[in-house]
Amino acid sequence: MAEPLKHLIGQETARDTADAVSRVWPDFDKGAFLADVLPRIEARELMQRGQLIADALAIHMPRDFPKAAAVFAACLPQESRDGLTGWALLSFNQFISAQGVGHLGTALDLLKALTPHFTAEFGIRRLIHECQDEALAIIGRWVVDPNHHVRRLASEGTRPRLPWAMRLPSLVRDPTPILPILEALIDDEEDYVRRSVANSLNDIAKDHPDLVADFVARHAPGASKNRLWLLKHASRTLVKKGHAKALANFGYAPLADVTVTLVLANDHIVFPGELGFEVRLSNDSTEPRTVLVDYAIHHQKKDGSLSPKVFKGRSLTLAPTQTVTLSMRHAFRPITTRVYHAGDHRLEILLNGRYVARKAFELYMPG
Predict the structure, then answer these.
(1) How many CA atoms are closer than 13 Å to the CA of 66, on its beta-carbon side?
(2) H or E stretch including 117?
(3) For the range 197-202, what are the long-range contacts, defined as Cβ-Cβ under 8 Å and sequence gap of 24 or more?
């Protein structure tokens, strides 16, 4: 069994933090700090453990934020010596987030120094939320930083809907202020950075689908292999939803001359089990056709209604008059993100984003 995530931070993390701070700031009351943290940390989950350490630091560090920031900076790895890295720096993120709003430049400089050793995306969010224009003016200059971790922080830290972190409602409503950052990093030499740009655009697509489809259309002509991958990854939510322009951006136009036949291998599944099915595609045209074949499972909910979930299938080109049969399977297994219910379900095939064939099947739940 995998170790619980909360074990990434624990009593040893608190001791390491206390040792690092006391080495660079002799006035630090290491004993009092540990007395505030050690008896209480085991009962908390991961993010709460980091916050407990951050709250204790707020009590025992200098009240003047620039002085505290200088201590934290000295705790980071230097060329001549080791320092704190990894999850031990989550509490620094949380401290900076809470205490640094009134000292924006100092706080952002510290997060920039911190991020090569542990992501600073947690600490930067509140600073952007409270001082968006000023923060983005500084962060926007990071897109040319020689360190790829800093460049990634510019894209990842500004994501409107970053998982595990506070949402940025102003950028959810209007993401245009971060588009220059994403445009500047679209051809970054590091996949690590480009993937972050794609994820940010995918976030934006959930609220502004046309904006992202237009962004992709502007940047697709003449795109390199790496940029094309980024644009496709950025469009994944739009493609799943059958957004017409997003599909057209990648050559998936609506098709009237491809016939689709769906055949189920079984229409009664005992959980856990698999649904087997075949999708037969016939190109009735005298021209080749590029097709994207996805499928949706309409799961039965507790109230008897159906809720669709789209799954990626495959892409192919059909030659004139060609017929192709795709054999596919969908597993029904216990997962943490879905509760399965017995009863009628539905399978639907999407061709270039449009529903074109459907079949009903029944799921049995033993016991």
Answers:
(1) 5
(2) none
(3) 197/155, 197/230, 197/234, 198/229, 198/230, 198/231, 198/233, 198/234, 199/156, 199/159, 199/233, 199/234, 200/155, 200/156, 200/158, 200/159, 200/160, 201/234, 201/235, 202/233, 202/234, 202/235, 202/236, 202/237
How many other C-beta atoms can be found within 10 angstroms of the C-beta atom of residue 30?
15
Residue type, 199: N
Q: 174-206, pLDDT tens digit by residue?
A: 999 999 999 999 999 999 999 999 999 999 999
CA gap 128, 299 in Å, rounded: 39
Non-local (6+) Cβ contacts of 288 within 8 A are: 317, 318, 319, 320
In 3-state terms, what secondary structure has residue 222?
coil
For residues 345 and 360, the answer to whether their CB atoms sit within 8 Å is yes
pTM for the model stands at 0.81
Q: How far is CA 180 from CA 49, 71, 153, 155, 291, in A?
A: 36, 34, 14, 10, 33
- Residue in this structure with the two tokens 């060609």, named with its chain if needed: 322
- Residues 192-231 as b or e (16 or more Cβ within 10 Å = b): ebbbbbbbbbbbbbeebbebbbebbeebeeebeeebeebb
Secondary structure of residue 208 in the 3-state scheme: coil
Q: Which residues contact 239 (CB under 8 A, 6 or more apart)?
A: 232, 246, 247, 250, 252, 292, 294, 353
Residue carrying the six token digits 């500004």: 158
Residue type, 100: G
Per-residue pLDDT of 278-328, as tens digits, reads: 999 999 999 999 999 999 999 999 999 999 999 988 999 999 999 999 999
